[in-house]
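Researcher: Structure prediction, please.
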Amino acid sequence: MDTTTPAPPRIAPPRQPDLPISAGARKSSRAPRKLVQALAWTLAALIGALVAISMVNRAGDRIEVLAVAHDVQAGQVVKASDVTTAQVAEDPALTPVPAASRSQIVGQRAAVDLRQGSLLTDSSVQSGGGLGDDLQVVGVEVKKGTAPQNEFRPGDKVLAVVLPAQGTASTTGAAKGGADAELDSIEGTVKSVGRMDATGSLVVNLAVATTDGPQLAEKAAAKQIALVRQPRDGKQ
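Model: Predicted structure follows.
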């Protein structure tokens, strides 16, 4: 009798499931996508670096100039608090006042209305009163048709023509016996010009002789003044 123990049956290892046919295709498509993303990030970083370099270069071309910190009306003295500094790109077409000239600007009078945020130029201010202390200053409100628009600036010579009151003839013409006689006029110099309002009216401050100030003020209050700008001498 055979007493040997039979050998146990061999058990085959479990079979690995077959991979789907598309699995290989998915693996192969992820690699190019990651490559594209890496290239995109690299390109974005390169563009950012170029932009930063450009901004640094532009900053090097900027200059420090003077700007208006608060509104200043024409004729008023420019105070230190009215002036600030700003960085602007250097441009031959612009003529701003360098920041180093701040002490020269403070103490001068605004030649025109200065608006907050605007740049100061040499023509924005005028030294001192610009007209001396031996003249009187009269504010003349002019409406459309009684003065040229956008033509006045400080230093301009003008004629303040006295108009006849409504419903009356020219007193000068009546006195001289002729309707064609010239109207009275007062010579003056523009000290400053106000802003035009919604109706088209504006105030022009005129410096006139002390003998003409009272008459000009009276006629200006009665709305009997028209302004005529005299020819400029080419230096204004």
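Model: The longest helix spans residues 23-60.
Researcher: Thanks, that helps.
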